[in-house]
Amino acid sequence: MARAGLNPQRVVEIAAELVQEQGVEGHARLSLAQVAKRAGVATPSLYKHINSLASLKRGVSILSLRLLADTLERAMPGTGDWEARLVAIAVAFRGFALEFPGLYAAAQAAPDPEAPADESWRQAGDRVLHFLAEPLQELDSLQGNETDLLRSVRAHLHGFIDLELRGGYRLDRDLAESFQIHVSILLNGLRHLARGV
To answer: Which of 22, 74, 103, 126 is deepest in the core (most CB within 10 A)?
Structure first.
């Protein structure tokens, strides 16, 4: 029997639930058959609410990015220097990934910069990037290199987090302490660049 109240938003929510349940690979493995089964409908019935699997995955990525951006917004301190703000964002970024590994992975997919259908996706992603970039705006000597810095910060954080989520760290050492050192290395690198040495 079909689930009452099924609509495009609810289909995306169901897909996001499945993605989260399946962890880091959930977004890649998502299928319409899974969503239909969870929704209690035949797979063809989903096409009343979505255009394709690709559009459904897009919806999950947008939802995930919005949740991540909300998390980063709550974490951003109202005061403090750029370093304190970047540390707060880094900790929140990792915290979101550990709590919602499937959704975190879905948030890493990138929209097509030229596709009109991806506009909402780009806007959701831009909001996340805003919180990653905001602390860097105080580094006056690095202005003009914002894109490079943002890519570096994102890669630095994501590299550690992705390895952690995939069980890549097996040594007997507290990962929170390792992450703290990892972020300190990032801060030192940014200070070094800002000094121009």
So the answer is: 103
Q: DSSP state, 140?
A: G
What is the residue-level pLDDT of the chain in tens, covering all 197 positions? 345 579 999 999 999 999 999 999 999 999 999 999 999 999 999 999 999 999 999 999 999 999 999 999 999 988 789 999 999 999 999 999 999 999 999 999 888 888 888 899 999 999 999 999 999 888 876 777 788 889 999 999 999 999 999 999 999 889 999 999 999 999 999 988 888 64
Domains of the chain are 62-195 (1.10.357.10)
Confidence (pTM): 0.91
Contacts of 114 (CB under 8 A, 6+ apart): none
**Residue 152, C-beta contacts closer than 8 angstroms, at least 6 positions apart:** 189
Q: Which helix (H) or strand (E) holds 121?
A: helix 119-133
